[in-house]
Amino acid sequence: MRFVIYGAGGIGGAIGGRLFQHGHDVVLIARGDNYTALAQHGLRLDTPEESVTLSIPVVNSPAALTFKDDDVVLLTMKSQDTLDAIRQMAVVAPSTTPIVCAQNGVENERAALRAFENVYGMCVMCPVTHLTPGVVQASSSPVTGLLDLGRWPAGVDETAHEIARSLSNSSFDSVARDDVARWKWGKLLMNLGNAVEAVCGPQSRGGSLAQRAREEGVAVLKAAGIAFVDRDEDAARRGTLLSVRLFAGSDRGGGSSW
Predict the structure, then answer these.
(1) Strand 119-125, strand 145-151: pairing
(2) Which one, 98, 113, 147, 244, has least CB within 10 Å?
């Protein structure tokens, strides 16, 4: 299985870097200054234990790849770039190519299903920072992140299990789930605090405004009959696995939006 990481920023760089470190076949797709840095110097992956430079193959467009039967594409760009990415992929990749939406939100999968038959949602819990081209800081150790996945909108298959095994062997904790949509809706509720945190600072994430945003989100989902993972179930899954540490010389706390 070759992993095509489309969007080699923070999440894509961390996933691609860890998979590559553990012997998996990986190619990155990047753009702009990040592509230039990756092509010239490789990916520098900083973790609490080490800083390594990885010479991962990188291209600046899906058109630069010849897709193979065992390819799996992980979409790791921001959602506003998904439609363009799907259009580019559809020109060169078979419609049967597995597409994994390793992104927040729940719209990317629906967009991917318009062009590809085998689409998977991934609930991403992976604390990373990407501020410099070619450099990714993954701050949780020894588990880099939680990457549960399943077919969209429901179900699992052998491809999902194989991806989960590969990730779990590469410092992630990954479970193939037949209800991955519930987990992504639960993550979306968590993300409602991002704007509050970005405007008001990290200390506001547990404050009354963020709490009111979550309460409204919960009320909306319940009114719409949409199932979601609640805080207690989520805490039972991730509470003891992620261990975030600040890097030496860094006092930047908060989530990725902050």
Answers:
(1) antiparallel
(2) 244
Contact residues for 252 (Cβ-Cβ < 8 A; gap 6+): 129, 246, 258
> How far apart are alpha carbons 175 and 121 in whole angstroms?
12
Quote the pTM value.
0.93
CATH number of the domain that residue 79 is part of: 3.40.50.720
Distant-in-sequence, close-in-space partners of 3: CB < 8 Å, separation ≥ 6 = 15, 16, 19, 24, 25, 26, 27, 72, 74, 166
Residues of the chain with pLDDT below 50 are: none
What is the DSSP-derived secondary structure letter of residue 140?
B
Q: Which two tokens stand for residue 144?
A: 């880099």
Report pLDDT for 231: 73
Radius of gyration from C-alpha coordinates of the chain: 18
Distances (CA, A) of 43 to 7, 22, 60, 135, 146: 13, 15, 14, 6, 21
Q: What is the pLDDT of residue 134?
A: 97
Structure token digits, residue 125: 């819990």
